[in-house]
Amino acid sequence: MVAEHSPLRVGIAGHIHLAPGSERPIADALRVELDRISDRPVHGVTCLAAGTDQIFARVVLATGGTYEVILPALDYRDTIVEPSRADFDELLARATRVIHTGYRHSDTAAYLAANRELLSRADRLVAVWDGIPGCHAASTDRTVDEARQRGIPTTVLWPAEARRADRRP
């Protein structure tokens, strides 16, 4: 139970590779959801991955909230592809707290640890997910499943205008 004066702690999970034109509808959907679940600014919990996580951090800031960042591994920043690395740096600097999982290298084990840490710090989870199962143990669908197994209230958003980026060669 969240104390009366404490902000609601909202974790985020979602797609990294989003098609052009998806950011605005996702941001709008996140704003609506944050307003629906809390009558005051929230405290977000994010890994600041490209795509959904960075959109979420910006929405949290725009609505007067704060956020903390879970870094999956020491080399995590190096795994982020431009142009989102500059966004990552800017958003990381605005975090109220940065938590390191202790992993050296960004891999599935590090991402799983980060997702578990995120869920341990969240009162609820919001997932920006198209409903298609992922291809590894740290995919959005697995995070949603784990949150639900833990009894964490979970909302899945996927605006009609949102699309995943085509990652085929």
TrEMBL record:
Record-linked SUPFAM superfamilies: MCP/YpsA-like
UniProt xrefs under Gene3D superfamilies: 3.40.50.450
Protein name: DUF1273 family protein
Organism: Micromonospora zingiberis
